[in-house]
C-alpha cells in the first residue's frame, strides 16, 4: 500500500544523499535520513501526521540533534534513535481518528520501527540474527483501524511507470482528480504510483501517456473490508480468477474475491475487468490491428489475496479456470503452497471457464454462507463440477483464427458449408467444438433449443447467459432457453469476459447450465438470487 511506496521513496532519498560516498560519517547519515524523510513527504499529495511520515521525520530530528550534540558513534546513535522511534510510533495512537478509535498504532510506522530495530541490533553486534519461526495466530476479536465502511474510493491501485524524463509534478497533477491517498515515488526514469481510485482503468490510461506500465494491481478495498469485518458468520472466503463471468452484484452479494488475469494488446497490458472493462475490451478487439493475448495472474497476486483472506478466515477456497487451457490453476496452487497463515487454502480446478466457472464459484460462496467448512466446500464443489456445462456459439471464426486457436482452413470449410461451431467444456476440463449448427439463419433460437435439450425436466437447474457486446441477443437467448420451463431455479445475464471472448469475438453468445440444489445448513441473512 502507500506505506510501502513511501518507504521506497525514503530509501531513494537516502541513496541520493549517501550513494556517492564510499564512507560516511554520523553527520552524513543524519543528512541522508533528513533527505529521505523529505523525499517521502514530497511524494504525498496530502501528507498526514500519525503515519510512517511522522516516524521518518522524528528519526531525522533525533539524528540531527544527536550529531549536533557531538555524538559520532553509530552504536550510540542507533540506540538513542531506537528509544525515540518507539515513543514516536506509540504517539501515532492518538494522532489519527481511526487509530484513536481502535486504540492501535499505525501499521506502516510500526513496520519502519521494526526495520530500524533490526538495524540497531546489527550495528551493535555485527551479526544477523536467525529469524524465529512466525507464530500463526487468529484472534476473531482483534481491534483494527477502519472497522467500519469508510473507504471513499474502492480500489488500492498501483503500478510502475518507466520512461525518459518523467516529471513527478505533472504525473501528480494528472492523477489528483482520479482519487486520493496519492503517492508518486521514484525518479526521472521510473516512478512507483499508488492511488486509491474508483476506476483503476482511468488511472492506467492516464499513466500510459507518460511511459510504459508494469506491475499493475488494483485491490478491492471495499470487498476486503466487508470480508474482514462484516462476514464473521462464515469461516471460509471464496476466490476466483477473472476468467469467471459473474455479475458484479452477485460478486458483492456473495463476497467473492477476484484475482485479475492480464490482457495484452501489443505492448499494452491491462488488468482484466479492472484495468479494462468488457466493453472496452470488445471495442479494442474489433479495432486493434494486433490480436490480444491473455496471461494468467502471477502467483504473487494469488498469494497476496490468499494471505489477506487466510488471516481473517479459517479457510480459503479458490475456484479457478480449467487447467487444460491455462496455467492459472497451477499459479494458484503455487501461491497456496507458500501461504503461512492460520487459514488453509484449497485450490480447485473448475474444469470450466466463463459462465460455468462463475456458477461453480457462486456455489462455493453459497456453501460458505451456509456455514460449510473448507473441506466440506471442497467436496461439494468437486461434486458440482461435472454438473456444470458451458456452451458458446461462435458466429465468426475470424478471431479464433487470428489468435491461432483454429487453423485458417477450418474457417474456410465452415464458411463454405455454412457451419456455426458450438464450443463446450468436456469432462476433464478440455474446451473445444462440441457440435455445429448447420446454416446461419435463426442462430439464437436454434442455440437455445440445443441448450434446452440438456435441461432434464426432472431436475432443477440454474442458467446463466453471456454476450460479447450483444445485449439484445443475450436477452433473447435467455428468454428462449427458460421459456415455459418450471425447473429453472435462477438466472442471470452478463457480458462475457476475455476467457472466451478473445476467441469468439464480438457477437458471441455463451450459456451455462448447472444442475442445482441450494446448499442448506445454517441460513444467514443474504438476499436471494433473482428468481425466475
Describe what you observe in this structure:
The protein has 532 residues and is α+β, with helices and mostly antiparallel strands. Helices cover 43% and strands 20% of the residues. The chain contains 20 helices and 17 strands. The chain has a six-stranded mixed β-sheet with strand order 14-13-12-17-15-16, with helices on both faces. Strands 2-3-1-4 form a four-stranded antiparallel β-sheet, sandwiched between helices. A four-stranded parallel β-sheet has the order 6-5-10-11, sandwiched between helices. Strand 15 (461-467), helix 19 (471-482) and strand 16 form a beta-alpha-beta unit. The protein is elongated.
In short:
The chain is an alpha+beta fold and 532 residues long. The chain has helices spanning 2-18, 26-42, 52-68, 74-91, 97-102, 107-125, 168-175, 200-208, 221-229, 248-254, 278-287, 299-310, 328-336, 354-369, 374-384, 398-402, 408-417, 443-452, 471-482, 498-504; strands at residues 155-162, 179-186, 190-197, 212-220, 236-241, 257-259, 262-265, 268-271, 293-295, 315-320, 344-349, 388-393, 419-425, 431-438, 461-467, 488-495, 509-515. The strands form four sheets. A six-stranded mixed sheet has the order 14-13-12-17-15-16, with helices on both faces. It has a four-stranded antiparallel sheet with strand order 2-3-1-4, sandwiched between helices.
Amino acid at each position: 500500500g502507500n506505506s510501502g511506496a513511501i518507504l521506497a521513496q525514503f530509501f531513494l532519498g537516502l541513496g541520493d544523499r549517501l550513494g556517492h560516498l564510499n564512507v560516511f560519517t554520523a553527520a552524513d547519515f543524519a543528512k541522508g535520513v533528513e533527505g529521505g524523510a523529505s523525499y517521502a513527504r514530497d511524494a504525498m499529495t496530502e501528507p498526514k501526521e500519525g503515519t510512517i511520515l511522522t516516524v521518518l521525520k522524528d528519526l531525522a530530528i533525533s539524528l540531527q540533534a544527536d550529531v549536533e550534540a557531538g555524538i559520532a558513534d553509530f552504536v550510540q546513535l542507533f540506540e538513542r534513535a531506537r528509544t525515540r522511534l518507539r515513543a514516536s510510533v506509540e504517539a501515532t495512537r492518538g494522532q489519527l481518528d481511526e487509530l484513536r478509535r481502535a486504540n492501535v498504532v499505525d501499521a506502516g510506522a510500526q513496520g519502519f520501527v521494526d526495520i530500524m530495530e533490526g538495524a540497531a541490533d546489527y550495528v551493535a553486534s555485527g551479526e544477523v540474527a536467525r529469524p524465529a519461526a512466525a507464530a500463526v495466530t487468529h484472534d476473531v476479536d482483534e481491534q483494527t483501524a477502519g472497522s467500519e465502511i469508510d473507504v471513499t474510493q474502492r480500489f488500492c491501485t498501483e503500478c510502475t511507470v518507466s520512461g525518459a524524463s518523467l516529471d513527478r509534478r505533472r504525473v501528480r497533477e494528472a492523477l489528483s482528480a482520479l482519487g486520493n491517498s496519492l503517492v508518486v515515488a521514484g525518479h526521472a526514469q521510473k516512478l512507483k504510483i499508488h492511488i486509491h481510485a474508483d476506476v483503476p482503468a482511468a488511472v492506467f490510461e492516464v499513466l500510459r501517456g507518460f511511459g510504459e506500465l508494469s506491475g499493475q494491481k488494483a485491490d478491492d478495498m471495499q470487498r476486503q473490508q466487508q470480508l474482514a469485518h462484516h462476514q464473521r458468520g462464515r469461516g471460509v472466503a471464496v476466490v476466483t480468477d477473472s476468467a469467471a463471468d459473474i455479475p458484479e452484484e452477485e460478486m458483492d452479494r456473495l463476497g467473492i474475491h477476484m484475482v485479475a488475469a492480464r490482457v495484452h494488446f501489443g505492448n499494452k497490458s491491462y488488468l482484466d475487468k479492472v484495468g479494462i472493462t468488457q466493453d472496452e475490451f470488445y471495442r479494442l478487439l474489433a479495432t486493434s490491428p494486433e490480436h490480444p493475448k491473455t496471461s494468467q495472474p502471477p502467483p504473487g497476486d494469488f498469494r497476496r489475496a490468499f494471505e489477506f483472506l487466510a488471516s481473517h478466515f479459517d479457510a480459503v477456497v479458490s475456484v479457478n479456470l480449467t487447467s487444460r487451457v491455462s496455467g492459472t490453476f497451477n499459479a494458484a496452487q503455487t501461491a497456496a503452497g507458500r501461504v503461512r497463515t492460520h487459514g488453509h487454502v484449497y485450490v480447485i480446478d473448475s474444469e470450466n471457464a466463463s459462465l460455468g466457472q462463475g456458477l461453480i464459484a457462486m456455489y462455493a460462496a453459497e456453501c460458505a454462507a451456509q456455514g460449510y467448512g473448507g473441506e466440506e466446500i471442497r467436496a461439494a464443489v468437486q461434486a458440482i463440477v461435472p454438473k456444470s456445462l458451458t456452451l458458446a456459439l461462435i458466429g465468426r471464426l475470424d478471431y479464433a483464427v487470428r489468435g491461432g486457436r483454429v487453423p485458417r482452413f477450418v474457417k474456410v470449410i465452415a464458411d463454405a458449408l455454412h457451419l456455426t461451431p458450438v464450443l463446450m467444456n468436456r469432462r476433464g476440463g478440455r474446451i473445444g467444438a462440441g457440435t455445429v449448427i448447420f446454416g446461419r439463419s435463426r442462430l439464437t433460437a436454434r442455440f437455445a433449443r440445443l441448450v434446452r435439450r440438456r435441461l432434464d425436466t426432472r431436475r432443477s437447474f440454474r442458467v446463466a447467459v453471456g454476450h460479447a457486446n450483444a445485449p439484445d441477443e443475450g436477452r433473447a437467448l435467455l428468454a428462449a432457453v427458460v421459456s415455459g420451463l418450471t425447473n429453472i431455479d435462477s438466472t442471470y445475464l452478463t457480458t462475457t469476459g476475455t476467457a472466451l471472448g478473445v476467441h469468439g469475438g464480438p457477437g458471441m453468445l455463451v450459456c451455462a447450465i448447472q444442475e442445482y440444489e441450494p446448499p442448506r445448513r445454517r441460513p444467514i441473512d443474504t438476499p436471494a438470487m433473482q428468481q425466475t
